[in-house]
Amino acid sequence: MNARVILSFDCEGKWGIADCLTPSLHAQHRDARLREVYTRILALLDKYHIPATFAFVGCFAASPEKLALMRPDLEKLALHFPHYLGRALEDCFDGTREGWTGDWAVRAVQNAQCDHEVGLHGVTHIPWDDPAMTEELAREELDIAYRHALPLMANCRTHIYPRNAVAYTHLLAERGMLGYREARRRTSRFASLLSEFNIWAVPDGAFAYESPQRIPAGYFLNWRHGLRKLVPVTVTRLRVRNLLRRAARDQKIVHYWTHPENFATAPSTFAAFEAILQEVAIARDAGLCTVLTQASYSQQEDSYSRRAADSAKAANSRTSRNLT
């Protein structure tokens, strides 16, 4: 087996920043700007023939009409999370009304040349480690998406937790999801920035099979904003090149993730993104890596597990026959 590469996007619109909106963020997340960013990302993925996982916040994936129908259920849920969902609904329905619905983005992903995966990034983007988020409320939030038959949910097979707050994984299994992206141990912003200069970063190994499958957390694609603009694209390129080479040698996994919205707030991030795509395409064409979506990775792990179980069963059967 060669290296396995996964690219995933946390698609949020404004839902991902509902608790920290500023005038600047309102301006950067206008509908026209988001459309431009998604179009450019998909064009680059088509250019290099690289499929990816686009995990959408359920509410962002809804049309304005569908979101209006969901409003009573969302307002009921917002009673428990006024600091997050309450603020989101206020701006969504009575404020700027910009950046909250992206059903057009889901269609664009589905109509792209590459066979991308559409996954789920929470329903409202309330992090499941919020002190108020009980198992009952987490199940209710998830049920809202299914109860209103969001088209997103029909073929949704993997999940990315909002703010990487992994919790209540059994609720995903109840809905038949194949896997979810794991989270790395949280570090300070300064430590995270310094890590971008580590060109000898280590690729991930696979987790033992379970249901739903844990997908390696991977690395955040450098968001070229603030001090992160100090990280040269050449360093980002060398880092991913070394990750791919080591992963090919050791049969490991290279997973990069980001938010499309990060490109709206820092357009120079496109340079780092294309550098990664170029290195992945070179490695793939040289036979050093296989590019997977989160769903195809999870299916592959399931297949490996079944074959291993069958082999073990056959070996036990042979041992039993030899003993009789």
Order of helices and strands: EHHEHHHHEHEHEHEEHEHHEH
CATH architectural label: Alpha-Beta Barrel
Question: Roughly how much helix do the residues carry, as a percent range?
Answer: 40-55%
Percent of residues in beta strands? 5-15%
Uncertain stretches of 5 or more adjacent residues: none
CATH fold name, please? TIM Barrel
Residue-averaged pLDDT = 93
Number of strands: 9
**Largest sheet: number of strands, sense, barrel closure:** 6 strands, parallel
Annotation field: number of helices: 13
According to CATH, what is the class? Answer: Alpha Beta
Intertermini distance: 38 Å
CATH superfamily: Glycoside hydrolase/deacetylase
Globally, the shape reads: globular
Structure notes:
This protein has 324 residues and is of the alpha/beta class. The chain has a single domain, classed as Glycoside hydrolase/deacetylase (TIM Barrel, Alpha-Beta Barrel), CATH 3.20.20. It is 50% helix and 11% strand. The protein is built from 13 helices and 9 strands. The protein has helices spanning 23-28, 31-48, 58-61, 64-78, 82-94, 103-110, 135-147, 169-174, 189-195, 233-250, 260-265, 269-285, 294-323; strands spanning 3-11, 53-56, 117-120, 158-159, 179-181, 213-215, 219-220, 253-258, 289-292. Strands 1, 2, 3, 7, 8 and 9 form a 6-stranded parallel beta sheet that branches. A 3-stranded parallel beta sheet has the order 4-5-6. Helix 10 (233-250) links the parallel strand 7 (219-220) and strand 8 (253-258). Helix 2 (31-48) packs parallel to helix 6, helix 4 runs antiparallel to helix 5 and helix 4 runs antiparallel to helix 7. The longest helix is centred in the last third of the chain and has 30 residues, at 294-323. It is globular. The mean pLDDT is 93. This is Peptidoglycan/xylan/chitin deacetylase (PgdA/CDA1 family). One of its GO terms (biological process) is carbohydrate metabolic process.
